[in-house]
Design brief:
The protein is α/β, with parallel strands linked by helices. The chain is built from 9 helices and 10 strands. The strands form 2 sheets. Strands 6-7-8-3-9-10 form a 6-stranded mixed beta sheet, sandwiched between helices. It has a 4-stranded antiparallel beta sheet with strand order 2-1-4-5, with helices on one face. Bound molecules: adenosine-5'-triphosphate (ATP).
Length: about 230
């Protein structure tokens, strides 16, 4: 579904991503794990086109989309939930969902507000609340829902657990797992325990390079990699 091949990314003169390759297939949850500053968000932003790679390729659904602008990638079906969630604080939950609507892709069931409410019942009672009044966990669910309203073919989640209480994180894990049958997911996380619990495969990034890749089950067992790169 998405394939990143040897991308090299700079911020000014700083050489941040030094040849990242990864892929996500239909039906998978794949995580990109790493410490603060390892390059997770930069990888997501490069895939989306906010800071396109200087070298390397991003392929989506078989096509080279490396240099396509963000709006084109969204239109083609790459859904992105950024780390800071970026919901509209002054719009209600329903309005936040309505403004995000994009036409569906013929091979998937289209998302609409009713489907969002039946998938995430917690949003029903909040429907007339302003985005800015919601708790962190509720905002994260709204941010994911809003991206689903764009009918993505793949979902990129940047550190979905950040700043959330443990009980909420558990609930979010169930929500993300339930979405896997609808749409493949690439998720970055510092919280390896959370991510490996719900992922099929994982990559470990450190200083802009992939240091390990394997199944989630293999990564859970690999305490050496965890201690060296993940601070768990
Ligand atoms: P975090 O958990 O903090 O989000 P991360 O793994 O997502 O960490 P990135 O945000 O991708 O890490 O940052 C990777 C490196 O790029 C860091 O050294 C960071 O200081 C640097 N960096 C990030 N954004 C910029 C920018 N706009 N300009 C210059 N350097 C940046």
């Amino acid at each position: 579904m998405i394939e990143v091949l040897d991308i090299h990314v700079f911020y000014g003169d700083s050489y941040i991503l030094q040849g990242i390759s990864l892929n996500v297939k239909e039906g998978e949850i794949v995580c990109l794990l790493g410490r603060n500053g390892a390059g997770k968000t930069t990888t997501m932003k490069s895939i989306m086109g906010y800071n396109p790679p200087k070298r390397g390729t991003v392929r989506f659904d078989g096509r080279d989309v490396t240099q396509q602008p963000v709006y084109e990638k969204v239109r083609r079906g790459i859904g992105y939930v950024p780390e800071d969630r970026r919901i509209f604080p002054n719009l209600t939950v329903v309005e936040n969902l309505q403004v995000a609507r994009l036409p569906g892709h013929s091979d998937r069931t289209a998302w609409d507000i009713e489907r969002i409410f039946s998938t995430f019942p917690i949003l029903v009672k909040l429907r007339e609340h302003k985005g800015g009044e919601l708790s962190g966990g509720e905002q994260q669910i709204l941010a994911i829902s809003r991206t689903l309203m764009g009918n993505p073919q793949i979902l990129l989640l940047d550190e979905p657990c950040e700043g959330l209480a443990p009980l909420i994180v558990e609930n979010l894990g169930e929500i993300i797992t339930s979405l896997k049958k609808e749409v493949p997911i690439l998720m970055t996380e510092q919280n390896a325990h959370f991510a490996l619990n719900i992922s099929d495969r994982g990559y470990v990034i450190d200083k802009g390079r992939i240091r390990y890749e394997g199944t989630a089950a293999d990564l859970v067992k690999n305490t050496e990699i965890q201690q060296r790169y993940l601070a768990v």
